[in-house]
């Protein structure tokens, strides 16, 4: 059922639709090397095959993880003898330097049009040398209409599809198949094929074999939304999880938490919650720190599936809690000053004076011990002279605790200012 021409491709219309970039390249027969990246089963190989079919160029397929320089040489020789070859190189993120160095001159000459396919972000996982010689196109999971269209083609195609089996797919079974595929057309077609081939008896008066919900449930696996814990899609999922909590969208956060739970990656969930409670909630609600750490400890003790319960408690509280990143911006601002050589000498009166000879150097001389004064406070300089007016902490006053901190901070800053002048 793989498309033979660019017009037969299902989905990815932002690239292959009429007058879109790949469509225009094919129609003009002016191909350039490219990298296609996105989740599995969404058309990377199909697009490469269709490009070759639409342009009548020879099409070869290799895998960067398995095939070696020997196989690349064979493709290169073919390109030298017969003209341009479209080479689909699957898992291009695993291309080693030896194979890369062999390929680069072929890409420069145009003898090989490379179409690299990867599920990983090429800006992270692919070498700059390859990236600079290719266009990078992101593919997206197929929507239900695309999957349904492909299923119709498979059921109505006599030569390459399943029409000869005379089957009828119920509407509920179709919906389940589309839902379970989660935008992965290969997964949907594999499930449909298994359902048809394992159901040979006629179930209705027309003589057709009916494919219903129970058959589809047995024929297609539940899609593991984030099976690759090191893949780009998994990091996108973690990013969406944190940003939904930061944005106080409880339902979105629970959605992404559910996807992470189904991936089985408890460690990543715990790490991300630990960051969130200090980065995004911060001083606005210190009680959230206590509750989140308790939820994390409980989740670690019980493991999945029960861990989902304390994790859900923590996520809901974090979403509905007041937010503040004042402590994050404060330390980052201080680090930025130091990285830009804004340091200066530590004032002598607060230098270490616990050794013989320290007083001769002026260390500790003039230091005022705060506990000897009313309210355990006395104004004196603590920052280096060149940074005496530095102000890193900018409390927002989100929540009662941070409001109290803000008032106290401003009061103490004013007392320090008056004490210095």
From TrEMBL:
Which CDD domains has this protein been placed in?
A: AAA (cd00009), HLD_clamp_RarA (cd18139)
Read off the Pfam families from this record: AAA_assoc_2 (PF16193), MgsA_C (PF12002), RuvB_N (PF05496)
Cite a single GO MF annotation: enzyme activator activity
SUPFAM superfamilies recorded: P-loop containing nucleoside triphosphate hydrolases, post-AAA+ oligomerization domain-like
- The organism's place on the tree of life at top rank: Bacteria
Q: Which UniProt keywords apply?
A: ATP-binding, Nucleotide-binding
Query: Tell me, what is an example of a GO biological process annotation in this record?
Result: DNA synthesis involved in DNA repair
Domain named AAA+ ATPase: which ranges?
30-142
The record's listing under InterPro entries reads: AAA+_ATPase, AAA_assoc_2, AAA_ATPase_RarA/MGS1/WRNIP1, DNA_pol3_clamp-load_cplx_C, MgsA_C, P-loop_NTPase, RuvB-like_N
So what family is this one in? Belongs to the AAA ATPase family. RarA/MGS1/WRNIP1 subfamily.
**What PANTHER family does this protein map onto?**
ATPASE WRNIP1, WERNER HELICASE-INTERACTING PROTEIN 1 FAMILY MEMBER
- What this protein is called in its record is Replication-associated recombination protein A
UniProt source species: Holzapfeliella floricola DSM 23037 = JCM 16512
């Amino acid at each position: 059922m793989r498309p033979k021409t660019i017009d037969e491709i299902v989905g990815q219309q932002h690239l292959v639709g009429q007058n879109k970039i790949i469509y225009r390249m094919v129609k003009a027969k002016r191909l350039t090397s490219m990298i296609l990246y996105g989740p599995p089963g969404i058309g990377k190989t199909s697009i490469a095959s269709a490009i070759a079919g639409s342009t009548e160029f020879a099409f070869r397929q290799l895998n960067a993880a398995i095939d070696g320089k020997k196989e690349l040489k064979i493709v290169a020789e073919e390109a030298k003898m017969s003209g341009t070859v479209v080479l689909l190189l699957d898992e291009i993120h695993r291309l080693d330097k030896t194979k890369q160095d062999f390929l680069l001159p072929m890409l420069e000459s145009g003898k090989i049009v490379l179409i690299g396919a990867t599920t990983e972000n090429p800006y992270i996982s692919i070498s700059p040398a390859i990236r600079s010689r290719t266009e990078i196109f992101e593919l997206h999971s197929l929507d239900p209409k695309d999957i349904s269209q492909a299923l119709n083609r498979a059921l109505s195609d006599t030569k390459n599809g399943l029409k000869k089996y005379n089957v009828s797919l119920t509407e509920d079974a179709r919906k389940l198949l589309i839902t379970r595929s989660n935008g992965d057309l290969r997964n949907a077609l594999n499930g449909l094929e298994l359902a048809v081939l394992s159901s040979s008896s006629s179930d209705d008066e027309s003589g057709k074999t009916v494919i219903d919900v129970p058959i589809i449930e047995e024929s297609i696996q539940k899609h593991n939304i984030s099976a690759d814990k090191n893949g780009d899609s998994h990091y996108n999922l973690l990013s969406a999880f944190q940003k939904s909590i930061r944005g106080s969208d409880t339902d979105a956060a629970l959605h992404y938490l559910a996807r992470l739970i189904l991936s089985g990656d408890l460690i990543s969930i715990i790490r991300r919650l630990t960051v969130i409670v200090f980065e995004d909630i911060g001083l606005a609600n210190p009680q959230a720190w206590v509750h989140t750490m308790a939820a994390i400890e409980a989740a670690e003790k019980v493991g999945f599936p029960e861990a989902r319960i304390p994790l859900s408690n923590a996520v809901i509280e974090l979403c509905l809690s007041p937010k503040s990143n004042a402590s994050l911006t404060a330390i980052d601002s201080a680090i930025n000053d130091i990285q830009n050589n804004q340091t200066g000498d530590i004032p002598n009166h607060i230098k270490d004076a616990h050794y013989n000879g320290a007083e001769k150097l002026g260390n500790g001389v003039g230091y005022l011990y705060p506990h000897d004064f009313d309210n355990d406070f006395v104004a004196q300089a603590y920052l280096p002279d060149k940074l005496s007016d530095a102000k890193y902490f900018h409390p927002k006053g989100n929540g009662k605790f941070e409001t109290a901190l803000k008032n106290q901070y401003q009061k103490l800053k004013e007392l320090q200012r008056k004490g210095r002048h």
